[in-house]
Amino acid sequence: MVPGLMRWDFDKLTSFFLPREVEDIRRIPLGLKPTLDKLIWHFSSNKIFSVKCRVVVNFLSDVMVGKSKWKAPEVGLFKLNIDGSWSDSDGRGGVGGLVRDCQGEVIEGFGKMLVDCGSATQVEMFAILHGLIFAKEIGIHDIILEGDSLNSLLAIKSPLEDFSSLGIYVEEVNVAFCFFNWISYAHVRREANAVAHVLACYAKGLENDVF
């Protein structure tokens, strides 16, 4: 891993592994913080993941029914819409999002290019994580998160620890929830997430991040 970057060190990988193995390793997602490897043993009695923090997280019960039209949040709240775009041919991805207030006015937006991504869901999970970090950095404390990736939102909602390649993102997203005084998340249809989708697609072709 390249220090300070969420990216594999290609030169070191090629020194130790065969070309095919290098490509497989480069598609393994890396988190934003050091994480210990886990021994996966199906007889383990402790498979429940929990995060202890004071934040009030509102798990919307209608996550399965996505809204088709964007709606402004209530007074005092902000809404973060995020999305991800992925190319299977080269593993390149892009994430984008924006924060809007109760009047529907855009506070700020972002776009970020990714490389060596293994799946569309991985990119969507990173979009959620990066969006939460972005919202924290611009000073948002009470927020509604919306995205059109149902698989990602269900993974976050699950009480079971995720041992798949997405598990590190699920863990970090739950930790990122603690950045906020109040947060809820919901699944919406692509029509209600159109601007974030455009930003993600645009970011996939960039060399530098945009804000």
From TrEMBL:
InterPro entries registered for this protein in UniProt: RNase_H-like, RNase_H-like_dom_plant, RNaseH-like_sf, RNaseH_domain, RNaseH_sf
One Pfam family hit: RVT_3
CDD domains for this protein: RNase_H_like
GO molecular function, one term: nucleic acid binding
Entry coiled-coil feature ranges: none
Domain RNase H type-1: start-end pairs: 81-201
Name of the protein in its database record: RNase H type-1 domain-containing protein
